[in-house]
Amino acid sequence: MRVGILYSRIRKDEKLLLNELRERGHEVEKIDVRKERFGLESTTANVDDLDIVVDRCLSTSRSLYATQFLDSYGVPVVNAPETGDICADKAKNSLALAEADIPTPATEVSFTKESAMESIESFGYPCVLKPVVGSWGRLMAKIDSRNAAEAILEHKETLGHYEHKVFYIQEFVDKPGRDIRALAVDGDPIAAMTRSSDHWLTNAAKGGETKSFELDDRARELVERASEAVGGGLLGVDLMEVGGEGSGEYTVHEVNHTVEFKALDAASEVDVPAKVVDWLEAKVAAADDEATEATA
Amino acid sequence: MTSDTDTLLAEDPITGEEIELPADVEVGEIIDSPVTGTELEVISLDPVVLEEAPELEEDWGE
């Protein structure tokens, strides 16, 4: 198959994927989105005859626009722009999970310092304030007191960008020093790991220690439903255990659409890039079958 | 520039020192400078040209 890779940086994750694709003899078209132009009818990027394009843009804004344009040209792209649109925004993410009746932390959005303070006080301390767009645990605040809340809200108000005036406030989930990242393709979990840290932020990007994790039936069900809630694709579903380690009860706090998998590949026995390419091959084969049936 | 089959040689854009890169690096790839630890981007392979990788931006991530 001919596979396009949308990117602006080839990280270890993209390298693993590129190597796997090439080892299997697939033709790869690397599309550096920084160098291309996207018009209403066509693009300077060489997307002709691509069987599928995989969005690996590190920048959320580039990811959202580039996938939208490719989709408008009829180029098959994963993840779909609709999925990216939900996953890139924590508020939309929370709404999608809640609408699908998936347990997710209680969340409020407010637009002024005053109403944000009311949200914070209604949750009580500690609670969590996150940017609606952002990743790797950046600019996330665990708020322990009213004094801290006032200072953080004031700082956010002066940060400038309008997104910092959308206050996304969430209950603090007292997780057992770890959370769970599951990588799934159209709801089917490929592998999972825990991310542990003494810090309240356990992201692997923040130095959280990773360890392979076996999902139980309940976690698998939630991963599948969370994937469906955002439109499916190659996704990183983040869960926290509620009621202590091994309780078997979870809350899903986030679904990520341009998911990194190098840490999971290293932590787990599963060959993650191989599983991702298996999925891409199956998707392309299914699309070919559909096209054949349509012309028969 | 090449040294042997396993590595490529390139100039570190920050220090000007010659550094070794894995032979399978590709355009767009981010590597850590063995001299300063700075993230460098591979701009071209023939000749091998490196530039300091762009700074992290607010919307980068998963």
From TrEMBL, chain B:
Pfam families cross-referenced by the UniProt entry: Zn_ribbon_LysW
InterPro entries in alphabetical order: LysW (IPR005906)
By what name is this protein known?
A: Lysine biosynthesis protein LysW
Could you tell me which species this protein originates from? Answer: Halorubrum yunnanense
